[in-house]
Amino acid sequence: MNLILHTVTQEKQRIEYMLLKYQNELSSLPRGTISEKTVGEKTYYYLKYRDGKKVVSQYVSKKEIENVRALVEKRRHIETMVKSLQEEKAIADKVLEGAV
Q1: Which of 36, 47, 92, 99 could tie 12 with a disulfide, CB 3.0–4.6 Å?
Q2: Cβ contacts of residue 69 below 8 Å, gap of 6+?
Q3: How far is CA 43 from CA 39, 57, 61, 63, 68, in A?
Q4: Which helix (H) or strand (E) holds 58?
Q5: In a structure prediction context, what are the per-residue pLDDT tens digits for the chain, which is 100 residues long?
Q6: CA torsion 17→23→25→29, rounded to 10°?
């Protein structure tokens, strides 16, 4: 039984490390979504996100749009990973709590 508790403890430490790493990375990635607006025959791109109660639209040039899209997609992926890790951490906490 002691080996199982040791393994769960190590897993919890790994999860906490990964959560910290992901949270640091999230702070540098843009939040929000990309929206397109067509005026005449030109298309303009905006990064839209909430700042408190208001929605902020930030213009993104055509040169930067692919890079920003990739960063937004990376943020979504990391947010999904964080949610999964938090669920795993909750399970590990319950196992360790029950063992004490």
Answers
A1: 92
A2: 34
A3: 6, 15, 10, 13, 16
A4: strand 54-60
A5: 688 889 999 999 999 999 999 999 999 999 999 999 999 999 999 999 999 999 999 999 999 999 999 999 999 999 999 999 999 999 999 988 877 6
A6: 170
3-state class percentages of the chain: helix first, strand second, coil last, to nearest 5: 60, 25, 15
Tell me the sheet residues that pair with 33. 48
In the three-class reduction of DSSP (H, G, I as helix; E, B as strand; rest coil), residue 100 is classed as coil
Model pTM?
Answer: 0.80
CB atoms within 10 A of CB 47: 21
CA distances from 88 to 3, 61, 76 (A): 19, 40, 19
Instruction: Quote the tokens at residue 22.
Output: 């992901």
30: helix, strand or coil: coil
The candidate with the shortest Cα–Cα distance to 9, out of 87, 83, 97, is 97
Our CA angle for 80, 82, 88, nearest 5°, is: 110
